[in-house]
Design goal:
1264 residues; alpha/beta; Penicillin-binding protein 1b fold; Rossmann fold; GIY-YIG endonuclease; 37 helices; 37% helix; globular; disordered C terminus
Length: 1264
């Protein structure tokens, strides 16, 4: 049976198979009297008006009610104390009371009362909750009673760590967050619903106290389209831009908040596919021109998408893609610049140069991005300028949307007000305290202080009539409410408060708890266990799993959906127990729970106060068999008050049940589906979009517009990648002034860099802009991908390139921290090493860093499987295991895994060291401020000395010095060369550089001639340039034993590798031609040729799955490309995919033409025989080429020496291996020699030319 409220005029009727009769007072208020009657109009389900309970008339039962009123649908009538509470609250709202308090025990049906009050007052309602989990559950329950009028508004962050600066340690942490797009959809749905209709209930977390753009601009910006409406194309595109919809360049980038324009060539119409952020699926507008070549169009069809396709609808209303609508971005930027200049002057007057420079760099970078993209990282900190608000004014929030659309005629309900109300002031104070530190030290402008939540005074200025709802209200709510609170003690199910038992926490109580949980699991009942800390919750859940109890933990560290899924698992009996902290106190509807166990109940404090204990005990008050157990060694005052009040309520409930003959029953609870699942269908089919047809229509075939590809050409020059090796490392994109635009890492550096400038590359708008500005690329080579990951992170933090700030969040690679100084030590994951722990502390030991949480979790999981440390730690904290036994086990694990022991965990220790290898180089203390000096003897009696500066986890600089040396100088004499360069050239030039020029220690690849002289020379230069710098300078070669040996060897390997790369990069000046003779000489030695090759040809094949195959030939003379000699070959005889046959055909045709000539061809003739033929491929392609040349020479294959005709080699792509005829293994042993650079240049040029030829041929065939 269903009870329904519905408004019509000013009338009221009770209907359906049961109800409570009403009598109307002279003042027009309805009174509840509990009895039942049957509706006389059989066969019709009528509704009840509750907008205004006065003037009841007989015409109100005719069924013609307004369609936009609140309706309550419930499978049961109000019972217990509910009818009286509903009546009293409606009366207080109608008589204009500013505050009312509903004080109801857990399980008395406060949510149903709230629903009836909303329908009884017919006011738009904002329900405020203190966390996401409670908001989602309450929205789900209200939606079950009120239907689809209920919306959810919570923070769209899955994880959020605010930006902060800790003054005591000098630690700055950038904001780190991850956005859940589904939650953002719900936020847009909520504001759209408020703007579209009056019967709206928005359940919001305290996220609604933060700024939400400009309500008036948001509402004014929306546009409405109907079929057959005229549409000016230029104006339409301008409106989409103003609504902050962006055009998607391709299907891959199409997402919410973007649109695409497709063309139907057959009808000359356009199809705009648009994805509003509040819709589950995109929508389409089909427009046709009113005349040929006209910008005036007519809307032919509007289609709304769903899982089956697109359905026609009559019209649509487009709301902005973002709540932050800014019409004049340039004015906002000018205002930001003005504030920046004022702040620069302030810091200069204070003499704080660091803060001044820091602020200027970050704000100018943000301004550049705001002008380019209308967005930047941390744009919320400029919200005052973007909104055009004066300084100090509060931001516009969801409450302003309520006021703008409804005036004061709306209702605020504050659920669990004893927790929610204190957040009004604490959120504001915490936000301001954090941001004042950022402003003080130059991380943010003072206007960032205006990006804040409302304070309590501002909140109450905006709030309307308010109803507090709580089982344990605080004195604050009682003081605000002028009248007495409305109490609810009797539950509709007549279930009494649970019994409470106190059991000793004697070390055996964990076994007792396990038995209690198992007993209830056998009866298909759930249990809740309340601990004091997150660690206890996780450890106990793990221990319960080990004892055969299906369990999960629940605390604030979990993401929103993870918490919701854990509760749902308990509702569906997929698990038998949830272990948590205070997340289990308020608002959780879990009638399956018959046991609540509180550990450490005698630890007096916030989590064990009277209010907290009452809320916890209430979790078992929905089940007939409910029971609570306090594990404690004494009874605290809070415990006593809680037990006394619970016993008093229980007695009242028992007496009521006995007097009225009531039988008890457990509640069934709300749906096990999450709120997001319940909204799934509602998101797909919107109430305001009326479908014209129920059958989906098929889309016509459309051709998308061609994409514009950014060329790799930079004026007359080109970014060349031949000098970049196929090894792990970090790359830097730089502009024409050498400023770093973007930093990235790659396992294969050359392939990664080439992917940016490839003609077929598809990039987003930011990367396209970065590539457009980039003029050069530089690289740093690393030994492994982990090294590259860590080095990339350190470089980004140090340089903060503009395009990284937009694309990559700040990262900290985690450590394992062993708290060896604690009485009960543990292994935990920490994001970084605390400075106070690193310097001289014996309480903590750090291991790492690890470049991924997957690695660190794998190590900890293996430790747990092997030693069971977490469970043993929990048992020790609960007194079930002695501290001595646990500490002995912990020390054993630490030694075997992190020490040098070769116990059972030897393999785990080796794997752990492999994971930590990146930290040896970029995170070790010895490399924090170190110079690494390498030296190499070159040809022509020259030597090069390279100095690599390692500073704070990055390679801060590379300097090379070339000097002439005596003829016949051996490697053993290079120490004197090294010392001369350092003492006479490198360190004396420190005055021209930054103050970080001088290191704390110097690592030499070879022993210096006289270390004492070298150290004294460095100290002398340092005292002259940095007179305030003190401390020892250590100069030495690599260590030969101990842990330092591994660090030094890895550091020298890193420096040597980059020294050779530096030689290839800068000595060749990014061009093969400058050293073509040298490269040809090395190539002749590599291939065993008599003379260096002058003319070289390279061949490549391009096709699409065997169709339209084209071969290309490029020619280099003395290292220079000769485009006039390039040729294309259309494959004639080969059918299908056969690169070998294609190579054979092309080489036969090419050399048959050369060999048939009776005279020697001129060197500039395109068919002259070259000195060397290079094939793009491996041994198979090489053999095919030899076969083709032998056919051209009309010689049987294998019976002649191919080198008597022409030299041939092949370059394989994967490992850059060079193959020659007659030899199975590659002939090259160095992947980055000059000879190989020349071959790469040939291969890459032939590949580029082949692709170009193939595209041209495919285009011609398509038109034919």
């Amino acid at each position: 049976m269903i009870l329904t409220f519905l408004a019509r005029s000013r009338s009221l009727v009770w209907v359906n198979a049961w109800s409570a009769s009403l009598r109307t007072t002279k003042r027009g208020r309805a009174l509840f009297e509990p009895f039942y009657f049957v509706n006389n109009r059989s066969g019709r389900s009528l509704s009840v008006s509750a907008v205004d309970l006065a003037d009841v008339d007989t015409e109100s039962a005719d069924g013609s009610f307004a369609s936009d009123a609140f309706q309550v649908q419930a499978p049961f009538p109000p019972a217990g104390d509910q009818p009286a509470a509903i009546q009293a609250l409606i009366e207080r709202v109608q008589q204009g009371d500013r505050f009312a308090l509903l004080r109801g025990c857990t399980g008395t049906g406060k949510t149903l009362v709230m629903s009836h009050v909303i329908a009884g007052t017919q006011k738009p309602t904002l329900v405020l909750c203190h966390n996401k989990t409670l908001a989602a559950q309450l929205a789900r329950e209200l939606r079950a009673f009120l239907g689809p009028v209920v919306e959810l508004f919570v923070s769209y962050y899955n994880h959020y760590r605010p930006e902060f600066y800790r003054e005591t340690t000098g630690t700055y942490m950038a904001k780190k967050s991850s956005v859940n797009p589904d939650l953002d959809v719900l936020r847009h749905r909520a504001t759209r619903a408020l703007a579209s209709r009056r019967n709206v209930v928005v359940v919001a977390s305290v996220s609604c106290l933060f700024g939400l753009g400009l309500p008036k601009e948001y509402l004014d910006a929306c546009v409405h389209y109907k079929t057959h409406d005229p549409l000016d194309w230029d104006e339409f595109v301008e409106k989409l831009t103003r609504l902050q919809y962006r055009m998607a360049v391709d299907d891959d980038s199409f997402e919410r908040g973007k649109y695409q324009v497709l063309h139907d060539d057959s009808s000359d119409s356009k199809v705009i596919t648009l994805w509003p952020p509040y819709e589950k699926f995109p929508m389409q507008l089909v427009v046709a021109p009113m005349a040929a070549n006209s910008t005036q169009f007519s809307v032919r069809r509007i289609l709304q998408g769903n899982q089956d396709g697109f359905h026609p609808i009559n019209g649509c209303k487009l709301f902005p893609a973002s709540h932050h609508v800014t019409h004049d971005m340039e004015a906002a930027c000018l205002s930001i610049e003005e504030e920046l200049q004022e702040r620069i002057k302030y810091f200069n007057d204070m003499g704080n140069k660091d803060a001044c420079n820091r602020l200027q760099v970050s704000v100018l970078r943000d301004l550049d991005q705001l002008r380019t993209w209308h967005s930047c990282k941390g744009i919320e900190n400029y919200s005052r300028h973007l909104a055009g608000r004066p300084a100090g004014l509060p931001p516009d929030t969801l409450l302003d949307y309520m006021r703008l659309l409804n005036g004061d005629d709306w209702l605020l309900m504050m659920d669990e007000s004893h927790v929610t109300l204190p957040q009004l002031s604490s959120m504001f104070r915490g936000d301001q305290s954090r941001k004042r530190q950022l402003v003080k030290h130059g991380f943010r402008l003072p206007s960032a202080l205006d990006n804040r939540p409302l304070n309590e005074h501002e909140f109450w200025d905006r709030a309307s009539q308010t109803i507090f709802v709580s089982a344990t209200p605080s004195p604050r709510e009682l003081a605000l409410t002028n009248s007495d609170p409305i109490d609810m003690i009797i539950r509709p199910t007549h279930v009494c408060d649970p019994k409470i038992e106190v059991r000793p926490a004697d070390g055996k109580h964990i076994n007792d708890l396990i038995e209690e949980v198992k007993t209830r699991a056998k009866k298909k009942q759930g249990s809740l266990v309340i601990t004091l800390t997150k660690r206890d919750a996780e450890d106990l859940a793990s221990h319960l799993e080990g004892c055969g109890v299906k369990s999960a933990y629940l605390h604030s560290g979990l993401k929103t959906l993870e918490r919701s899924n854990a509760l749902r698992a308990l509702q569906l009996r997929e698990i038998d127990c949830i272990v948590g902290i205070n997340c289990l106190r308020e608002g959780l509807d879990l009638p399956q729970v018959s046991l609540v166990a509180v550990l450490n109940a005698d630890c007096e404090g916030f989590l064990r106060s009277e209010s907290a204990l009452l809320q916890v005990v209430g979790r078992a008050a929905r089940n007939v068999h409910g029971m609570a157990i306090f594990y404690a060694n004494r009874v605290t005052d809070s415990m006593k008050r809680c037990m006394d009040l619970t016993a008093h309520r229980r007695q009242l409930q028992l007496d009521y049940n006995k007097k009225n003959g009531c039988s008890t029953r457990s509640t069934t609870g709300s749906s096990a589906l999450s709120f997001f699942d319940l909204l799934k269908e509602q998101i797909e089919l919107e109430k305001g979009l009326m479908a014209e047809e129920s059958k989906a229509v098929q889309l016509a075939s459309f051709t998308s517009e061609p994409l514009q590809i950014i060329s790799a050409q930079k004026g007359k020059s080109q970014i060349v990648t031949d000098h970049i090796p196929n090894t792990p490392g970090v790359y830097f994109w730089k502009d024409d002034e050498g400023s770093i635009l973007y930093i990235g890492k790659g396992v294969n550096l050359r392939s990664r860099v080439k992917s940016y400038i490839s003609p077929s590359a598809k990039h987003g708008p930011r990367i396209k802009e970065m590539v457009r500005r980039a003029k050069s690329v530089d690289v740093v080579l690393t030994a492994s991908e982990r090294d590259a990951l860590l080095l990339e992170s350190n470089y980004i933090k140090h340089h903060q390139p503009p395009f990284n700030v937009l694309l990559k969040d700040d990262e900290h690679y985690p450590y394992i921290c062993a708290s060896v100084g604690d009485s009960i030590p543990s292994l935990t994951v920490v994001p970084y090493r605390k400075p106070e722990h690193v310097s001289g502390s014996s309480r903590y030991r750090y291991f790492g860093p690890y470049t991924s949480f997957q690695e660190i979790n794998a190590i900890l999981d293996d430790i747990e499987r092997m030693y069971d440390l977490r469970v043993k730690s929990f048992m020790t904290r609960q007194g079930s295991l002695s501290k001595e036994a646990y500490n002995e086990l912990f020390d054993k694990a630490l030694e075997e895994i992190f020490g040098d022991s070769r116990g059972l965990s030897h393999n785990l220790r080796i794997r752990r060291r492999q994971y930590e290898e990146a930290g040896l180089l970029f995170d070790s203390e010895s490399n924090a401020c170190r110079d690494v000096v390498t030296v190499q003897l070159l040809q022509d009696d020259k030597a090069i000395v390279s100095v690599m500066q390692l500073r704070s986890g990055i390679m801060a600089g590379r300097y090379k010095y070339t000097c002439q040396v005596s003829a016949g100088l051996g490697d053993e004499d290079l120490g004197s060369v090294l010392q001369t360069v350092l003492t006479e050239r490198h360190y004396p030039s420190g005055g021209e550089h930054s103050t970080s020029w001088f290191p704390d220690n110097v690592l030499l690849s070879l022993p210096a001639l006289d270390v004492k002289v070298l150290k004294e020379s460095i100290r002398e230069s340092r005292s002259r340039i940095e007179p305030n710098r003190k401390g020892r300078i250590q100069v030495r070669t690599a260590a030969t034993r101990g842990a330092q040996k591994e660090i030094d060897e890895r550091t020298l390997e890193f420096a040597t590798k980059n020294m050779f790369q530096d030689l290839l990069t800068h000595a060749n000046q990014y061009s093969i031609s400058l050293n073509g003779d040298l490269a040809s000489t090395e190539l002749a030695d590599l291939l065993a040729l008599e003379n260096p090759p002058s003319r070289i040809e390279c061949y490549d094949i391009s096709h699409t799955q065997g169709e339209n195959a084209v071969a290309s030939r490029v020619v280099f003379e003395n290292g220079e490309p000769q485009p006039h000699l390039y040729r294309q070959f259309v494959i004639r005889s080969v059918v299908g995919i056969d690169d070998y046959a294609s190579i054979e055909e092309v080489l036969e045709r090419r050399f048959r033409r050369a060999f048939k000539s009776n005279t020697d061809l001129d060197g500039d003739d395109p068919w002259a025989v070259p000195d060397l033929v290079v094939i793009d491929g491996g041994k198979g392609q090489l053999n095919a080429a030899v076969k083709g040349i032998s056919k051209a020479a009309e010689s049987p294959e294998g019976q002649f020496d191919i080198r008597s005709l022409v030299a041939v080699c092949a370059l394989a792509k994967d490992k850059e291996e060079v193959f020659v005829p007659g030899r199975g293994d590659p002939v090259n042993d160095h992947p980055d020699s000059r000879a190989l650079l020349l071959l790469r240049a040939l291969r890459d040029e032939s590949h580029r030319f082949a692709l170009k030829a193939h595209r041209k041929r495919r285009s011609v065939l398509k038109h034919v």
